[in-house]
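Hi F.,

I've been meaning to write this up properly since the lab meeting, where we talked about keeping a consistent format for the predictions we share between groups. The idea is simple: the sequence comes first, exactly as it goes in, then the structure tokens exactly as they come out, then a line or two of notes. No screenshots and no reformatting. I'm using this chain as the first example so we have something concrete to point to.
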Amino acid sequence: MHHGRLSTTRLAHHRGHLVLFKLCTRDPRASLNMFSKKILFAAVFAGFSFLIVTIRFGLHVVNEGHIGVYYRGGALLDTYTEPGLHWKMPYITTYEEVQVTIQTDSVRNIPCGTSEGTMIYFDKVEVVNQLSKKSAVNLIRNYTVNYDQTWIFDKVHHEINQFCSKHTLQEVYIELFDTLDEAIADALQASVDKWAPGLQIIAVRVTKPKIPSEVKKTYEHMAQQSAELRKAQMEKKVILQRATTEKEKQKIKQEQERELEEIKLLMNIKKKETEAKIAKINDEIAFNKRKRATDSKAYEEVKQAEANKMKLTPEFLEFTRLTALKENTKFYFGEKLPNFLPSDIMGSVTAISSHHQHAEVLEGTEETCTKDA
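Output, unedited:
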């Protein structure tokens, strides 16, 4: 067993000497070619790696709501890119993302002194603003990408101190506090319009300032009294409003009653007018009826007169007179009769008597003839 292990060792030692011999006896030109190939391979690999790294450093992403501005050799370029994937020249070109959507910058812990010398602190002032894309490059060229530090953060400190220095604590804390938002917003907008066009101040929100505790207690007491006063004024206003409302109700009620009376009066007037019209119509109907009756009677009398005029001839009148005398049952005879009746009447009476006698004779004759027959 020991003998076999020794033989293996000698064999390995022999192979080592053989390899060393081959290396020493190899052609130098072949070794140089192999070395060149290795260097070429290493150079290609290094170039490819450099290209990959270069492409990787050249590609960049601009996020939504931002634009990309570029610096080449430290100088700001005039162009910008929209959101998306872009490529820049690596190593010599750098870029920055600038937000162009609406953003809110919060300025905190702003100290200011009032005109009375009282030091107060504003915990936070929020400025809502937006940068225009077209003006972004010029604005950044003048004030860098940290333009908001100059025209919002530092400017808010300045405007707050300007406001406090011109007003008392009472005005800053209570009387003029509701106008502070608009005052700062107007001042900021006026400044950026003049020196940094393209930046729009949309709104400003100012929190209540922090004041010394002793002063705060005084103001709290004043606020409590003011609240009680407002409560009393509100109660008074409610009472007055109720009285006014009740008065208005009574006024409205009286107005309604007056309007109702006017309506009733108008209705009665309309009723009387209608009755008068009806009476007038009835009178006209009765008048027309009487007129028609009168006209009819007059027409009848006219026609009767015309008929009588045509009928009353001398012969008819004579016949009528004789008939009337005949129907009279009393006749007077004597010597003085002519003195009583006219002669023509007497003649007529005699003629009628003779006629009657002759008629009686004829009637007696007709009766005798009839009996004989």
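Notes:
The beta strands are 59-62, 66-72, 75-81, 84-87, 93-99, 103-113, 119-131, 199-206.
Confidence is low (pLDDT under 50) at residues 1-25, 361-373.

If this format works for you, I'll send the rest the same way.

G.
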